[in-house]
Design goal:
Layout (H helix, E strand, L loop, with lengths): L1 E2 L2 E5 L5 H22 L4 H22 L16 H8 L1
Antiparallel strand pairs: 1-2
């Protein structure tokens, strides 16, 4: 439907049929995710969630998303003995 406040925009609305479809797949999808993730302990899932969030923020930063973080270059940080191994 057209947006009455902005003639350039078109509003997308979910129909009742779309809502019904969403409700039909939401619970089975959630159950599948829980089953897949059940091989991990809770602390591992929390850690994975944090890692994925950091990755998401980094990707948004690279692609120009709305993530407010200082632009720094993340260079691979190596311990001194690791640098020696690489140069040897």
């Amino acid at each position: 439907m057209k947006d009455p406040a902005d003639a350039r925009a078109i509003r997308v609305v979910v129909t009742e049929k779309g809502n019904q479809l969403f409700e039909n797949v939401r619970l089975p999808s959630r159950e599948l995710v829980y089953e897949i993730m059940s091989c991990y302990e809770e602390r591992d899932v929390i850690s994975l969630k944090g890692l994925l969030e950091r990755l998401r923020e980094h990707v948004l930063q690279i692609l120009g998303g709305d993530v407010h973080r200082p632009h720094t270059t993340n260079k691979l940080r190596l311990e001194a003995n690791d640098e020696e191994k690489i140069s040897a």
